[in-house]
Design a protein that fits this description.
The complex is a heterodimer of chains A (114) and B (111). Chain A is mostly beta strands and 114 residues long. Chain A is built from no helices and eleven strands. Chain A is globular and about 40 Å long. Chain B contains no helices and eleven strands. The termini of chain B are far apart. The chains are: A mainly beta (114), B mainly beta (111).
């Protein structure tokens, strides 16, 4: 399996809802990432996990809560989001977090916050 | 901090002609430069990458050149086809766990 998968593909939620995004990879990668991408912009890094431990949090608001239950899974828990949080949320993985490792992206979850 | 500038922001090319996208960076610590292609509504997909120990890499119609002294790298697509239409992002990994992306180039191939 050489793919990163994400569920759901689309998500619509109200500002008072709690939802979760899921990401899975079976490539044996030990680094996993969450990105946020707005229309016509590059992906913007949110979190990095290395060996199931959070190594980078790019000053993301606490209404976004990441979780890495095991080396293959990455979740992003969402609570009390704002309309400006509507975006494409991309998961990625790489063998390690070292400087020359290729990152492979999942298809993303398109989130709309009403 | 790290910064990657990408030009042009939009590029229209006649089918069969070549397309060139350029990126410059400010931090000399980067050793790895991937290029991603993102079609509308799809994930970014790695199309080619180059590491600092080489100056050029080619894969069929796609090539990347790197000039570390001048701190710039370029994507070259030859014999362009309609399916090459997409947004292309350059990126650099500046010695840490993060990829810094360029602002993107929307490439349109005119049939």
């Amino acid at each position: 399996d050489t793919e990163v998968t994400q569920t759901p593909k689309h998500l619509v939620m109200g500002m008072t809802n709690k939802k979760s995004l899921k990401c899975e990879q079976h490539m044996g990668h030990r680094a996993m990432y969450w990105y946020k991408q707005k229309a016509k912009k590059p992906p913007e890094l949110m979190f990095v996990y290395s060996y199931e431990k959070l190594s980078i949090n790019e000053s993301v608001p606490s209404r976004f809560s990441p979780e890495c239950p095991n080396s293959s899974l990455l979740n992003l828990h969402l609570h009390a989001l704002q309309p400006e949080d509507s975006a494409l949320y991309l998961c990625a993985s790489s063998q390690e977090t070292s400087a020359q490792e290729t990152q492979y992206f999942g298809p993303g979850t398109r989130l709309l916050v009403l | 901090g790290e910064n990657v500038e990408q030009h042009p922001s939009t590029l229209s090319v006649q089918e069969g002609d070549s397309a060139v996208i350029k990126c410059t960076y400010s931090d000399s610590a980067s050793n790895y430069f991937p290029w991603y292609k993102q079609e509308l509504g799809k994930r970014p997909q790695l199309i080619i990458d180059i590491r600092s120990n080489v100056g050029e890499k080619k894969d069929q119609r796609i090539a990347v050149t790197l000039n570390k002294t001048a701190k710039h790298f370029s994507l070259h697509i030859t014999e362009t086809q309609p399916e090459d239409s997409a947004v292309y992002f350059c990126a650099g990994n500046f010695g840490n766990e993060k990829l810094t992306f360029g602002t993107g180039t929307r490439l349109t191939i005119i049939p």
